[in-house]
Specification:
Elements: H1 13-45, E1 60-75, E2 79-82, E3 85-88, E4 91-104, H2 111-124, E5 128-134, H3 141-148, E6 161-168, E7 171-179, E8 185-194, H4 197-202, E9 207-211, H5 217-229, E10 234-242, H6 247-270, E11 278-286, E12 293-300
């Protein structure tokens, strides 16, 4: 049980003086501590340079940029090398403003923690996921570090990487986290805003999306988002099939493509996109064996 003894200052003048000095010193120390704590916490929880999101706790900023970019890649599939060229099956090239922060995470943390920290925050803020991958499903880390982000520091272990791309309104949000061979953990946070909404929509023209015999909603997510954001936009969906060798192959592939066309229109209608804004064309002109069918999206007036 705590007890408190009241001592009158006139009866114990020396004790009162010493207590006053101790109290003053204590108050001064407490004030300094509180100011320091406020400064630390304000730095810890201040919005990050890139996304107006909290900085990863106790992380340091390894790199930060905010600049205009031309032909900035918005990648919604894994990276791979095809005939000596590093590429992705689904990518938009847009002009606009990039705001980027690369964090060096504190010792003892993992690349998964950095990845999940920002992906969860983006989802909480209503960002729509366009594509997400982990580990080897993302492709080689070397591709992301050197060919996508042009930051060699992000080259690390393929199994210890994660990539996320999402969209909210006119902006794209990307997260990439990696563990390097030396054990250091880096997490990149990008925000990219196209220079004009109309320009954003124009960039879908010519994009080729590989399709199997069913609609891939992940592959179509960027197109769906653009159609939703721009209600006056119209598009031509060109289904490309492999050139047949026989009449029997033609009949079989035509049946599959007719079915794919119906599934495609039904899916887009379920996403709130009227068929009145769309036209579909079927053609046999593909010699690429990587996929049986390809979807080309062309914007119409």
């Amino acid at each position: 049980m705590n007890t408190t003894t009241a001592k009158h200052p006139d009866l114990f003048p020396a004790l009162s003086t010493r207590k006053s000095h101790r109290t003053t010193a204590l108050n001064r120390t407490t004030t300094v501590f509180l100011i320091s704590a406020v400064l630390v916490l304000s730095g810890l929880f201040a919005p990050s340079y890139a996304a107006q999101l909290p900085a990863y706790p106790n992380a340091s900023v390894a790199q930060s940029v905010s600049e205009e970019r031309q032909n900035h890649p918005i990648i919604t599939d894994r990276m791979k090398r095809v005939h000596g060229t590093v590429t992705s099956d689904r990518v938009l090239w847009l002009d606009g403003r990039l705001t980027r922060t690369v964090y060096l995470l504190p010792s003892g943390h993992t690349s998964a923690q950095g990845f999940e920290f920002y992906v969860n925050l983006l989802r909480e803020q209503g960002v729509e996921t366009l594509f997400e991958c982990r580990s080897f499903s993302c492709g080689a880390s070397n591709f992301w570090a050197n060919d996508v982000f042009a930051i060699p520091t992000l080259y690390g272990q393929d199994k210890e990487q994660g990539y996320y791309i999402g969209k909210k309104q006119d902006s794209y949000y990307a997260v990439y986290s990696i563990r390097r061979g030396n054990g250091r953990i880096y997490t990149l946070m990008d925000v990219f805003t196209p220079s004009g909404h109309e320009g954003d929509a124009d960039q879908i023209s010519g994009v080729m999306i590989p399709l199997a015999t069913a609609v891939d909603d992940t592959a179509l997510a960027p197109f769906v988002a653009q159609m939703r954001d721009n209600p006056t936009m119209k598009a031509l969906l060109m289904l490309h099939g492999q050139v047949p060798n026989t009449l029997a192959e033609f009949d079989a592939r035509r049946t599959e493509m007719d079915k794919l066309q119906r599934s495609l229109l039904q899916y887009l209608q379920e996403q709130g996109i009227s068929s009145k804004r769309l036209r579909v064309n079927i053609t046999f002109d593909s010699t690429d064996s990587a996929a049986p069918f390809w979807l080309q999206i062309v914007r119409l007036q």
